[in-house]
Amino acid sequence: MQSAGVLDASVVAVHRYLFSGWTRHATWQAHRIIEKVVAEKCGGNANVGWGWYGGSRDLICRTVLHGFFCSRSDHPGPYGIGVHLFSSNHSFDCARSSDPDENGLRHILICRVILGKRELVPFGSKQSSPSSREFDSGVDSLVNPKRFIIWSSDMNSHILPLFVVSFRAPANLRGKKLRKLNIPRSIQPSAAAAAAVRQPARRSATLNVTNIMNALAEVLPAPSMVLLNKSATDFRAKRITRAQLIRRMGTLAGKELLASVVKSCKRSESNPIHQRDDTNNGS
To answer: Residues with Cβ < 8 Å from 61, sequence gap 6 or more?
Structure first.
């Protein structure tokens, strides 16, 4: 239906991203670890928000299966080089940024986003990373942001897809205004927050640098450990933040391996009786 340039759109299907498999569970766990690290850096509040991400069906499928992708060679968006998401109140704008498939369906993601401390990114900027260590993400407005900009170094740790929304809208959607998208209440941001909370409960991850470094040393090559040891030294000397140390660990070890190592360390630290039994058995 169209009236005075205003269009209707209807949701056809909603697919929830499940974290049941080992790899997907590691993704979820790594995201929550980063949330705690950013919260510590920002005084206790990681500033978690909800963002919409649109594109072609192939792009959405690739993102769900393999994560977000962005490179410095990409053509900058209107607010720099990174992953651009629309804030939760601007799902209609995200809908306009999507492309119809051969069946006329469009697809968008609703994502959980760790924003941390935001900085203003001006229109037309070619920025591709935080302007200083103080900031974690970018926005087009500090008062009422429409766009979130997550830099490529953080895109697959700070953004967690939760739902794929497939909907039908007229072909001439771009440049028009949507009257309603009829988004089910179960996947609106407040419900998405509840869905995130309903994920399997995990105890908070306390970063014991020594234990994690020792575990990584057993599986990583020597050159990588040289770099990690330098980063750990910088962290202990307070030359880098805890969040920066985690990022470097994830870059060198991979987020799945890092999540697995952290989980193993937590299990060992929380079960001293089992550790003593192992020691006794070996004596």
So the answer is: none
Q: Which two tokens stand for residue 123?
A: 């229109």
DSSP SS3 for 173: coil
Helix (H, G, I), strand (E, B) or coil at 256: helix
Q: Which helix (H) or strand (E) holds 54?
A: strand 48-55
Candidates 218, 204, 175; CA nearest to 270 is 204
Sheet with 6-8, strands from edge to edge, namely 2-3, 6-8, 177-180
DSSP class of 61: H
Helix (H) or strand (E) holding 163: strand 159-168
Question: For every residue of 93-162, which 3-state class applies, written as one string?
Answer: HHHHCCCCCCCCEEEEEEEEEECCCEEECCCCECCCCCCCCCCCEEECCCCCCCEEEECCCCHHHHEEEE
Is the pTM for the entire model greater than 0.85? no
Residue ranges of the chain with per-residue pLDDT less than 70: 1-8, 20-22, 71-76, 171-207, 223, 266-283
Please, which residues bridge with residue 55 across strands? 107
Provide the 3-class DSSP secondary structure of residue 174: coil
